[in-house]
Design goal:
The structure is a homodimer of 274-residue chains. By secondary structure, chain A is of the alpha+beta class. Helices cover 33% and strands 28% of the residues of chain A. Chains A and B meet through helix 4 and strand 12 of A and helix 4 and strand 12 of B.
């Protein structure tokens, strides 16, 4: 069966990737300038934080998409969805890790993804505060700061307790319902974990800094660039379960990284969920 | 009772601090140059990693101390103790977070502390890979990249579940004996935690990025700069317990940050230990 993404020619994919990288530059410039000049922080209905930088960065991105790709779909964390049902759908989380941004920690990131007929076509994760950017596109490979990425699977014995995995904090397993048993089972199997609580963990998995990572019940935009980035780097990406609901309300869980660890983590999580 | 550190005049403290910052420059230059040119990684007897960068950075520091302060004591992670029993004792962890350094994650740090008659006189934590340096000295304040630091205590209600704390990974609570009950009790009380697994968490507590953090059963050099940095920034630092033994074998646990959270964390840990 042909992958539906083959319908988009290589040269078109290259052009779309170039556009995504231009948009990432624009977003990075906007966020950096607001970080420098100061910003307001407020709480959203779900108690998560939003700053004037999140909103302005997404606005700048939307203007860019509307100018260059007016008929394509667009879903953003802060400003909603437009052109619903279009074959191409851009997804943006302008600042993933707003709580980190608000405290001036550089591990936040801008996530840009483009899907074609519900399949991930390209993705960019840009850590403007660290000068680190990863990108990947279907059939075109994955890169961090333009170095090609290659996720190697574990050597026998390396997939156990010594493996370095990324995790969300326990707080993320307590909503929308209590899944703290999943957290406990995972940390017991992989006690050598890190918690950055942003897409920096995704970048690190793609780049070899972590062996695997996961997200738990998080909106689509948090994962918008991850699947294509990991798969183009040679890793595995597995969806665990997604909640009911649609659009902004739907939540996703995923495990990604070295194939042996993704398989083991998936098994642990499925056993825990019963 | 007069603090014993008053025996060191303000001008002498300033001179020692200036020297410590010079040494930090020297270490940063050495580490950065080796990061660039490549390094070998090997396992120590305790299964932790060491690289040629750890050893060379500490060697350069030792040469500097021997030239400028030949009669002062010196304890380093990689190359042992000299001038034991001297009033002034320099302590260095040339690369805290060697496992991060080996994977090219910039959250590792160089820790330099100076103790006078067993009291912390000054400390520097330098994150060369991130361009972030914190320092503090007795009576002279604490700074990150030369901005004065001020740890404010929590507003009522802020010391609970929403507080952001730093933690070692579960792996650190499994040695030298199983204290996973401490980890479980702490994350239940503070589910919104981060795990950087290096002294970057200490820098963040001093600089306002985290509300509190802790270390569990770790050698003295991992904490060599932390107490003075936190206390000069206005936070609290509490030792929990230290293991028996002496020198390189002795291990320390500590909680530090906003006073209300340090008090609560200490209570949780002591209740768990029984």
């Amino acid at each position: 069966m042909t992958d539906v993404r083959e319908e988009v020619s290589v040269s078109e994919r290259r052009e779309l990737l170039a556009a995504a990288l231009d948009f990432a530059d624009l977003c990075a410039k906007t966020t950096a300038s607001i970080m420098k000049s100061g910003f307001d922080v407020s709480k959203k209905d779900d108690a998560s934080l939003v700053t004037t930088a999140d909103v302005e960065t997404e606005r700048v991105f939307r203007v860019g998409i509307q100018e260059r790709f007016p008929s394509m779909g667009l879903l953003g964390e802060e400003l909603g969805e437009s052109n619903e049902g279009a074959d191409f759908r851009w997804i943006i989380d302008p600042i993933d890790g707003t709580a980190e941004f608000a405290r001036h920690l550089p591990v936040y990131g801008c996530i840009i993804g483009l899907y074609y007929k519900d399949e991930p076509l390209l993705g960019v994760i840009d850590h403007q505060g660290m000068g680190v950017r990863s990108h990947g596109a279907y059939g075109l490979g994955a890169f961090t700061n333009n170095t090609p990425l290659r996720i190697e699977d574990c050597n026998p014995g390396e997939s156990g307790a010594a493996a370095r995995i990324g995790l969300p904090s326990l707080a993320s397993f307590l909503r929308p319902s209590d899944a703290s048993a999943v957290f406990r089972a995972v940390v017991e199997a992989y006690p050598n974990f890190r918690v950055y609580h942003t897409c920096y963990a995704h970048t690190l998995v793609a780049s070899g800094g972590l062996d695997a990572s996961m997200e738990w019940q998080t909106p689509l935009w948090d994962l918008a660039a991850t699947q294509i980035l990991i798969e183009e780097a040679g890793g595995h990406y597995g969806s665990i379960q997604s909640s009911e609901g649609s659009g902004k309300k739907r939540l996703f869980s995923a495990v990604f990284g070295k194939p042996a660890i993704v398989a083991r983590l998936t098994e642990i999580i499925e056993n825990t969920l019963g």
